[in-house]
Amino acid sequence: MTEEICPVSGFSKDQQERWSHLHALLTQEVDTLHALNHPDLPRLGTEIQASLQQATMSSEELTHRKAVFRQLKKRIEFEFEGSQLHAFGSTESGTSLGAGDLDLCIVVKQQSPRRLLNKIRNVLKQMGMKDIEVIGRAKVPIVKFKDGPSGLPIDISVNNELAIYNTDLIKEYAELHPLVKETVLAVKHWASSRSINEAPNGTLSSYAWTLIALAILQANPNIALLNLQENAPKSIIQLDQSYNVGFKKGQTFVPANPSMTLAEAVLGIFDHLANDWSFDEGVCSVKHGGYIGREIKRWPHGEPIAWDMVPEELNQRLGDHSMPIEDPFQHSHDLSRVLRPEGYFDIREEIYRAQKLLSQGLSWEQVCEPIGPQTTRFERFDLFADLRTLSMEVLRNQMTEIESELVKVDVEHTEAKQRRTELAKLVKFGLRQERTKPDITIPDYVEIKERFENSVSEFTAMRNKVDEINEINILSHSRIQHQMRTIFERITEELDVMNVHNLNRERELFGSFFELKAMQPSALKAHQTYLTSKQIDADLHKEVKQLNRMNRKNSNSMKRLIKRRRTLRRERGRIEAFIRIKDGGSRPNKPRAKQAKRKSKGPDASMVKQKMSTGESVSMEELNALLNNGGLLGMNLEKEVKIEERSGKKRKKRNTNVRRGTAKGSSRRSRKE
Amino acid sequence: MKDEALLEVTPEFMIRAIIHRRERLAMMIPKQLESRGEELQVAEPLAKDAKERREALQDKIVAFNDQLLKVKSGSEEHQSLIDSRESFIAESQQAENAYLENELFRRRADSRTKRLTFALNDCQRAIEYWENILEKGWDNLLTDAQRVESGGPSSYAVKRKEKEAKS
């Protein structure tokens, strides 16, 4: 085994094969690296453009993502008062490949992230989302799930506000010039295809590759990408600590060499990565316009380094700042902290591989030849796929079926609700938490109610009897027996010559003994009555338990009905929408029931008017309601209009003008009248 | 006695049991009284002697104190008087302890004798009383029981009501 380990690189035989380019470079099997040239730059440019067109998100996908986000935002912000749901990440910054997930962040005050995520999970369940998983113990707790119909992967994190600002910055850079966005996308596409953009697997994250691409574009003299954070106005936000998230917006940018092509820019990136990426001395920093020295940043190379861990300890974490990349706002955050030795070597191997293939003039497709399991692309889905082949008549029949089933489900739900209410009443009555007799209408429960009534009245009578006897006797049956035994022993059996009761005490004890004897029968009766009432109570509890079991079953069936109703309504909406689209019509403009409900009614204007006519005082709210309804004059006019309508005159409906007391939009003729 | 048997107890049975107990006590007490009387006979002279000895020693200490006042302080005589007084004080302390011990013993013997005498007298009176009750009837002793039997409150309930009324 030891013979197979390379004395120069320290790689085992398998590792030499796996990281062949890196190994060859180290063992001088290839010449030292040279500036990267490609024999056919125009072809490379076309290939990159083509691959981007294929890999990046289509407008259809983007629209769908936006729709999913809108739906989630509306629901989550409604459920969690004062919360805001933001989208961040590559989708938002416009640097997303089609396979990327949708990153969302809920910003809410005073909530434990884990508890909140659990609540969100329940909401998502109701919304029909799939594969919901709460990862509460991560550094940034998230809930992962997939959109029900499309399977789009979505993450929601809590109070991860800095990510929103990072996204804004990346977006600003991406929008500076098409060359910037395309170069970033090309780098991300290459990293994704070659499986070196997976932070959980010990390589760099997609976000880190974006920052690397931007930093290299900043350092490239032919492009000299602007540094948006340099001399930017400060904008301090307070999260766990203060952060300056200020950057320049709305800048115009032209590459230093305006004739730079995408192929040259991408080639420049790989040339830089292979030949000039000095991560042993510098820190990749977009904030500092490319690079900053490790000493200035005070980020020394931590132990252990990757080379010390070959060939067998590759699964351990690397020392700090192995390939340092500074976060633009959170300056203490090094994005390379996730690296593992294997990931480190994979990245270096891929860089040298890309450099070699590009210099040999191979195609961009070959450079980005996928390895490992590729992230499945979000599948374009057709919400109406199954409906498209159906005729209008079949669709209408389906609608009718759904409507009738909905009615049936509604009826069943109402019945179940009624059962729940009555069962709750019966349980309360059975446990004697409610004294008044319950109002029961369901025939099955009437019998139970009657049985309960009998038992409860019997129980109450017995307990009253016991209380009555106890009030007279005070002492319980067992206590009386104990007292009698003690007295008897004292005055007839004890022979302690030094402790003889005097005669008076003896007389008292004699009288007390026979008083206790007289109390005994009633006490015994009370005791027996108490035991019987206890049995009745136990029987009642047994029945209540059964009722609770019934109630649970009923609740479960209610849940099923609600779920079924939701599915049916969704299906009805889907078919309705399809029919509407097919008919070429638009959505009916009717107010939403919930919104209409939420609107507070406020005081009734006619009541206010009545109040004013009687000379009563009115509040500001009432006055406002009166003015909104046209004031005193407007109200009169409305009344007149109504009278006219009643008298059979045909008139158009008019909106009364509050100020003039005339009708809005009324014709000149009608005004003259 | 078992609980069921207790319910069978009649007033007459109870009175006879009381009388029986009293008679047995009346038989036991004289023997006890005799031995307590012997104890007292020993304790009294002992206490008297200890008291006399203690008082004698206290007198001597007083006399020494008087002498000390007359003798010049710092002289040899003064010192010897102090030494002698100290030894008398120690002796007096021992006498005091002996007195206290003997007096306690005497008092206890005296108290027991008195208590037994009283108990004996009480037993004799009780036997007479209960025999008289047997002859004349015991209804006046069972007023509480009669009230309870007729459905009235027990004396416990009455006491509780009184207590509640007071508070």
**Can you give the helix content of chain B as a percent range?**
over 70%
How do the strands line up in the largest sheet of chain A? 1-2-5-4-3
Name the shape of chain A in a single word: elongated
Structural class of chain B: mainly alpha
What fraction, in percent, of the residue positions of chain A are helical? 55-70%
Number of helices of chain B: 5
Question: Could you characterize what this model shows?
Answer:
With 673 residues, chain A is an alpha+beta fold. Chain A folds into 4 domains: 1-32, no CATH class; 42-367, Poly(a)-polymerase, middle domain (Orthogonal Bundle); 394-583; 605-672, no CATH class. Chain A has 23 helices and 12 strands. Chain A has helices at 13-18, 20-26, 41-55, 59-79, 90-93, 113-126, 161-176, 178-193, 206-219, 262-276, 294-297, 341-359, 364-367, 385-388, 392-430, 443-473, 477-492, 503-583, 593-598, 605-613, 620-628, 631-646, 668-672; strands at 84-88, 102-107, 130-135, 142-146, 153-158, 236-238, 242-244, 282-285, 290-293, 325-326, 655-656, 663-664. In chain A, strand 6 (236-238) and strand 7 (242-244) form a beta hairpin. In chain A, helix 7 (161-176) crosses helix 8 (178-193), helix 8 crosses helix 9 (206-219) and helix 16 packs antiparallel against helix 18 (503-583). The longest helix of chain A has 81 residues, at 503-583. Mean pLDDT of chain A is 82; it is low at 595-600 and 637-673. Chain B is mostly helical and 167 residues long. Chain B has one domain (8-136): Helix Hairpins, CATH 1.10.287. Chain B is 87% helix and 0% strand. Chain B contains 5 helices and no strands. In chain B, helix 2 (11-70) runs antiparallel to helix 3. In chain B, 19% of the residues are buried. At the A-B interface, helix 16, helix 17 and helix 18 of A face helix 1, helix 2, helix 3, helix 4 and helix 5 of B.
What order do the helices and strands come in, and which of them pair?
The complex is a heterodimer of chains A (673) and B (167).
Chain A: H1 13-18, H2 20-26, H3 41-55, H4 59-79, E1 84-88, H5 90-93, E2 102-107, H6 113-126, E3 130-135, E4 142-146, E5 153-158, H7 161-176, H8 178-193, H9 206-219, E6 236-238, E7 242-244, H10 262-276, E8 282-285, E9 290-293, H11 294-297, E10 325-326, H12 341-359, H13 364-367, H14 385-388, H15 392-430, H16 443-473, H17 477-492, H18 503-583, H19 593-598, H20 605-613, H21 620-628, H22 631-646, E11 655-656, E12 663-664, H23 668-672
Parallel strand pairs in A: 2-5, 8-10
Antiparallel strand pairs in A: 1-2, 3-4, 4-5, 6-7, 8-9, 11-12
Helix pairs in contact in A: 2-12, 3-8, 7-8, 8-9, 8-10, 10-12, 15-16, 15-18, 16-18, 17-18, 20-21
Chain B: H1 3-8, H2 11-70, H3 76-136, H4 143-149, H5 155-166
Helix pairs in contact in B: 2-3
